Amino acid sequence: MKHQELNLKNFKRIHLINSLLCIPLLLLFTWPYIYIARFTGIEDFLAYPGAAFFAIPFMITILHGHVTMALGSVHRHHYYEWLTETPLTYGLLFYPMMIRTRFRLMLLVVSLILFAIGFALQV
Predict the structure, then answer these.
(1) How many whole angstroms separate alpha carbon 78 and alpha carbon 6?
(2) Burial of 114 (0-12, 13-18, 19+ CB in 10 A)
(3) 10-residue block means of pLDDT along the chain (123 residues)?
């Protein structure tokens, strides 16, 4: 790795920041879904998984943007390769499919389907 931003220390720093941002971002994006689900009377056993499926795509998008801002769009694949090479430590919860837009949209659609099912059960 020739470039200054492409070193192990920088990758660990990016991973630490992303790890610390996960829970606050998850909470930030789950509460609107839960609030609307409670307002419409959807049961909690459908509201909480739906909220998680709703929040995770937004959280991943912001964390992916953080990696892009830190390394640049040309070099971010080096960070994701490093995560893939360290599956039992830093890359424990990382799968290459997570950064694909199609996967994030599928999670969002699943959350909307869960919302529709919960709403249909209330009627």
Answers:
(1) 7
(2) buried
(3) 74 95 96 96 95 97 94 92 91 90 97 96 83
